[in-house]
Every structure is written in structure tokens, then in C-alpha cells.
Design a protein that fits this description.
Blueprint: E1 10-11, E2 36-37, H1 41-58, E3 65-66, H2 68-84, H3 97-100, E4 108-117, H4 122-130, H5 137-142, E5 149-156, E6 166-175
Parallel strand pairs: 3-5
Antiparallel strand pairs: 1-2, 4-6, 5-6
Helix pairs in contact: 1-4
Length: about 180
């Protein structure tokens, strides 16, 4: 399977966040449903983070800080899933998020992860994660009061035999003190 971090532009099917800069703490606004989504994974990842922070703001929570390190891990995981046609919190080699982040200094504490596949739009991906009972893990990760940072990863697989094509990962954590 060929995995690409680029894909052809597509039309958004619902409102999405407009903050395309990596400043994910900025207050994003929505754009018209006819806006063309970018084919740049970094832009899509920034939109995912901005949408997560919109949800947090709507729930009276401070925004997550954008983490390039968590985003690197999230994108690598999304591309691993895409290249193997998987939907799993473990990599194709069986590594968990905690194992994938184990070498970080200072260490990450209590990392958690949301994944999704088959959804083309970052706002729709966050809506999918939020559309679960209040104690659902995806929802809890987004609304966690103890986590401080977020990273987002996106990968597109054009010839995905599963038909999912779009793979998303959001990694959440906070830095340890050691």
C-alpha cells in the first residue's frame, strides 16, 4: 500500500475551523461549508488541534498547547496505521503510545490517544470522537482537565484496500517533572 502525506484537495461537507496556522491556542472561527480543505497534512493537523480547542473552550476548559513532539508521534502512528490498513492504538510492531513516547526528556505523563479512520474532515473527526457517552474515552481525552498538551497526526493512503484512506491520531499528555 502506498501511503502519502499529501492527497488531492476535497470539499468540506460541514463547517470547519479556520485557524490554519500551527498556533492552536488561537481562537478559531468557522468557515463556510464550501471551503476547500487543504492537501497539506500540517494544515489538517492544525485544524484538528484548533477544533479540539474549540470544543474545550465551549466546555469552559483552557486550550491544549500544541506539541511538535506529540504531533510527530501522532503523524508517525497515523502513517503506520495507513500503511498497514490498521485501526489500533498499537503500532504494526505492537508498540503502545507510552512505548512510542518512552525516550522523551522530560518524560510524558499519562499519555492518551484518540484515533480515527475513514473520515476526511478534521472537524468531523472531532465530532465523531465527541459523539459518545460522557465517560467515553475519546470524549474524556478531549475534555481532560489534567492533560496540557496535544499533538495531531494525519496520513492519507490513496490505495487503501480497507477503504478508510484517511487516518487521524491525537495524542494528549503533560510533561513530567524529572
Amino acid at each position: 500500500m502506498t501511503v502519502s502525506e499529501r492527497r488531492p484537495p476535497r470539499r468540506a461537507t460541514q463547517p470547519m475551523a479556520s485557524a490554519v496556522a500551527i498556533d492552536a491556542t488561537a481562537a478559531p472561527t468557522s468557515v463556510e461549508a464550501t471551503a476547500t480543505l487543504s492537501d497539506d497534512p500540517a494544515v489538517l493537523e492544525a485544524l484538528l488541534v484548533a477544533t479540539i480547542n474549540q470544543v474545550r473552550a465551549a466546555n469552559g476548559l483552557p486550550p491544549y498547547q500544541y506539541s511538535p513532539e506529540l504531533s510527530g508521534a501522532a503523524r508517525a502512528h497515523s502513517c503506520d496505521l495507513a500503511s498497514h490498513g490498521l485501526i489500533s492504538h498499537e503500532s504494526a510492531e505492537g508498540r503502545t503510545l507510552a512505548q512510542r513516547l518512552a525516550d522523551a526528556t522530560p518524560p510524558w505523563e499519562w499519555p492518551s490517544e484518540n484515533i480515527a479512520a475513514g473520515v476526511a474532515d478534521p472537524a468531523a473527526t472531532v465530532a465523531l470522537w465527541m459523539d459518545e457517552p460522557p465517560q467515553g474515552w475519546h470524549r474524556r481525552n478531549i475534555l481532560d482537565v489534567d492533560q496540557r498538551e496535544v499533538g495531531a497526526g494525519y496520513c492519507y493512503a490513496a490505495d487503501d484496500s480497507t477503504g478508510n484512506h484517511h487516518y487521524w491520531t491525537a495524542d494528549f499528555s503533560r510533561r513530567g517533572t524529572t
